[in-house]
Amino acid sequence: MKRFRTQVGIVGAGPAGLMLGHLLHRQGIDSIILENRSQDYVIERVRAGVLEQGTVDLMNDVGLGTRLNREGLRHDGVYIAFAGARHRIDMAALTGGRGITVYGQNEVVKDLIAARTAANAQLHFGVTDLRVTDIEGPEPRIVFNRNGEPYEIACDFIAGCDGFHGVCRTSIPHELLRTYEREYPFAWLGILADAPPSSDELVYSLHERGFALFSMRSPTVTRLYLQCAPDEQIADWPDERIWSELETRLSTSDGWRPNQGRIVQKGVTPMRSFVAEPMRYRRLFLAGDAAHIVPPTGAKGLNLAVADVCRLSNALAAYYKSGSETLLDQYSDTGLRRTWRAQRFSWWMTSMLHKSDSDNPFDHQRRLADLEYLVSSRAAMTSLAESYVGAPLD
Ligand code: FAD
Ligand code: PHB
After folding, report:
1. Which terminus of the chain is more solvent-facing, meaning fewer CB atoms within 10 Å of its CB: N or C?
2. For the sheet containing 77-82, what is the strand order?
């Protein structure tokens, strides 16, 4: 058994784990990041695309803004479409100049891996059989195999940044964790297409046939989603069927429609709301999807993960500087407040914009009335805009 020691052992090299490692390094705190997938897999996984203003500000503050500022697409507004018309919500005008930036999660992860490598700090991909042990005591440990050899890392703290299916949350004694969950009777079929985006801003659309979302990754790549059944088989969706359905659900009477192009990636994403509380057990802290999942309609998941690790790194820095545990003790409660706000918003966007098999004509009309109100009331648009651009980081 090879034995090592670190201040903070980080499980998972998604955005939460990598960003935490970066923030700790800047504070002079030692960490080791362990990831069970390969580096290529972690970079190529197609996921989030929308960064809140606070996430962009943090990336700039911590020296990760160069490529983001060059390649990210800053949006001041967003469209909501229904009944054949698009309505623009001017987020910047309604929030004192705040907006969102389209910059793929892959790009964020690439920038973070480059920073970690440049700092010569430890980041290990492809570890197997990872477990956390001794979490009752003052020196929790992470054990795992790497290249067929067993390792053990003794830590002051462990950060569980290992996503919804990770091992950290389930290591906490079951009776001490309260979980809240809702599954949705639909999923999203997402594609990436080699096609220049036909709109400068995102379009969230409710159609009688279901939800569709127009997004993008770059001036040459469009990202599109369709509401589908949770058990949808991708094999049942040849490219022509996808384009025909997107065209039906997204085209508006002003002649706007998405540009078509070669489909380079397809996948089905389930929708779930989930919260585990507390986000801490002794010296084990949960962050990001390990602690909470939101349906993607609010574009909050990655941003919540970043908000968690920003708070956690500040709390750990205060602990190492002065021995104070105040911020560590507040980590969970402060995070849960932000999480529930994001849950509320993501649930609201999801239920307003999706149709469900249990709907009757009343439900469809009520949803249209909700949307009519949204796009005709400055107060309602401000409420959406405030939540969409996100609250400043704590
Ligand atoms: P993850 O990215 O899941 O990272 C966890 C890491 O831990 C993974 O790399 C995993 O391999 C690793 N791991 C797991 N188990 C172990 C183990 N036992 N040992 C070692 N490593 C382990 N969010 C937004 O904010 N905006 C959006 O626009 C948006 N769109 C989305 C669209 C889609 C289609 C999807 C699926 C998600 C979207 N999200 C969005 C959500 C966002 O992608 C996630 O919230 C984000 O990835 C969370 O980051 P994380 O680091 O907490 O978890
Ligand atoms: C994306 O571009 O992938 C995206 C955008 C907005 C969302 C979800 C996903 O709400």
Report:
1. N
2. 85-90, 77-82, 203-207, 210-218, 221-228, 178-194, 262-277, 292-293
Q: Which residue has the tokens 């993960």?
A: 305
Q: Assign 3-class secondary structure to 264-301.
A: EEEEEEEEEEEEEECCEECCEEECHHHCEECCHHHCCH
Distance between CA 264 and CA 194 in Å, rounded? 7
The chain-wide mean pLDDT, for the chain, equals 97
CA-to-CA distance for 258 and 203, rounded, in angstroms? 10
Residue 394 reports pLDDT greater than 90: no
Residue 36: which of 179, 162, 186 has the closest Cα? 162
339 touches 292 (CB < 8 A): yes
DSSP-assigned beta bridge partners for residue 146: 149
Strand pairing category for 221-228 and 210-218: antiparallel
pLDDT digits (tens, 9 = 90+) for 133-142: 999 999 999 9
Active site residues: 75, 204, 296, 300, 388
d(CA 327, ligand 2 centre) in Å = 32
Pocket (CB within 6 angstroms of ligand 2): 48-50, 202, 215, 223, 296-297, 299
* Distance (Å) from CA 312 to ligand 1 centroid: 18
For residue 87, the CA-to-ligand 1 centroid distance in Å is 31
Question: Position of tokens 């489909």?
Answer: 263
Whether pLDDT at 115 is above 90: yes
Q: Give the whole-angstrom CA distance, residue 25 versus residue 224.
A: 37
Which residues make beta-bridge pairs with 145? 128, 150
DSSP label of 170: G
Residue with CA nearest ligand 1 atom 30: 48
Mutate to test the pocket of ligand 1, among 34, 105, 110 (most ligand atoms within 8 A of CB): 105
What atom in ligand 2 is closest to the CA of residue 50?
5
Question: pLDDT tens across 240-285, in order?
Answer: 999 999 999 999 999 999 999 999 999 999 999 999 999 999 999 9
Predicted confidence (pLDDT) at residue 357 exceeds the cutoff of 90: no
Tell me which of 50, 192, 250 to substitute to probe ligand 2's pocket, judged by most ligand atoms within 8 Å of the beta carbon. 50
Mean pLDDT, rounded, for 26-54: 96
Is 48:301 a contact under the CB 8 Å cutoff? Answer: yes
